[in-house]
Specification:
Layout lengths: L8 E5 L3 H13 L3 E5 L5 H7 L4 E5 L7 H11 L4 E6 L4 H9 L4 E4 L4 H14 L6 H19 L4 H8 L3 H8 L7 H10 L12
Parallel strand pairs: 1-2, 1-3, 3-4, 4-5
Length: 202
Amino acid sequence: MAIEVPSVRILIVDDDQAICDYMQTLLEKDGFVVKTLNDPTKVEDEIRLNAYHVIILDQMMPKLDGIEVLRKIRGLDTDIAVVMFTAHPNLESAVASMKLDALDYIKKPFNVDEFREVLARVMKKKGLARTPEEMLHKIIGDTIRGMRKERELTLKQMSRRTGLSISLLSQIERAESSPSISSLYKIAVALDARVQSLFGTH
């Protein structure tokens, strides 16, 4: 079965149209759904109307600064991942944005690889899968955790039954490790389940 990866929706808020256009092109090429806004006062309405997974927010803007916008975003949505974008990083603004749960910082002018790395890190933190393979790991991990809890087994008991370490089992459940076929077989036996059922299909 083909695994459908849900589109990750990103909102870019920056008063510089050239930066918005550049980032939109870059991110759309990477398969993201992207919208840009030049006017920070419109962010609240935009979030009310559309669901976003990630917001990339410029810190220095006329009308409203990024911290103020971030405060408004948090008033509407505490889960959305926010990355601050700044040409003038300083401790005070870093502390203020971290208090409002900004997940990361990108310095301007930015390096494309560094930017992709920050985005990958943020998405991992938020459990947003980017590739079919990551999606598959998430399905397997969630399914194994669900079955283990149904059977009221601890990771320690699973470790004893499978001969796999607790940390490996925990990594598989959190989709941080790619399980081998033999690991999946041992887990299936320990759960008294068929290997196929670990892939979320019954």
